[in-house]
Amino acid sequence: MKSVRSAARALIIQDGKLLTIEMQRGNEPVFYILPGGGQVHGETLEATLKRECLEEIGIAPVMGPIAYVREYIGRNHTFKEAHKDFHQIEVVFRCSLPNGETKVGIDMDKNQIGVRWIPLDELEQLDFFPAVLKEYINNGEVAIDREYLGDIN
């Protein structure tokens, strides 16, 4: 039986820049995602967010309100061959870094090659997922008008 995975991610914007995880599969082009990852059974979303961010960016963020919820049904998107049986629900929280810290990266995930602060006005030119987030950038902020964004990539 196939199951749906839950995950928590951090939307961290500081000085007009978005904190991202830099990813690359083999020789494929580099792409970017938000920090965070899969929830472990018995773990709260807050604990998931802090654990995953510690692993990927080296800092446990200060968790704020929910920015949005999205589903990712792999067979419908860019990585459909690799993710054909993958279904995840992500709760994305607006976060900040304690004391404005910017230390990043200690225990990178598979295919993670780095951590990068991307100026919001440069995001459009990069392979960033979920790509729809680019549509919500306005005046150096991400302004999302609804909480559930559906099955997006």
Describe what this molecule looks like in 3D.
By secondary structure, this protein is mostly beta strands. Strands 1, 2, 3, 4, 5, 6, 7 and 10 form an eight-stranded mixed sheet that branches. Strands 8-9 form a two-stranded antiparallel sheet. A hairpin with a 7-residue loop joins β2 and β3. One of its GO terms (molecular function) is hydrolase activity. Its cofactor is Mg(2+). It holds the Pfam family NUDIX. This is NUDIX domain-containing protein.
Radius of gyration: 15 Å
Q: Biggest sheet, in brief? A: 8 strands, mixed
| CATH third-level topology | Nucleoside Triphosphate Pyrophosphohydrolase
- Overall pLDDT, averaged? 87
What amount of the residues lies in strands? Answer: 35-45%
Question: From the coordinates shown, what is the CATH architecture?
Answer: Alpha-Beta Complex
Structural class: mainly beta
At the first level of CATH, the class is Alpha Beta
Work out the helicity level: under 10%
* The CATH superfamily title: Nucleoside Triphosphate Pyrophosphohydrolase
Count the DSSP helices.
1
Poorly predicted tracts of residues? none
Count up the domains.
1
What gap, in angstroms, lies between the N and C termini?
24 Å
Extended strand count: 10
Topology pattern, helix = H, strand = E? EEEEHEEEEEE
Indicate the overall shape. globular
Pfam family, one: NUDIX
GO molecular function, one term: hydrolase activity
Keywords: Hydrolase
Cofactor: Mg(2+)
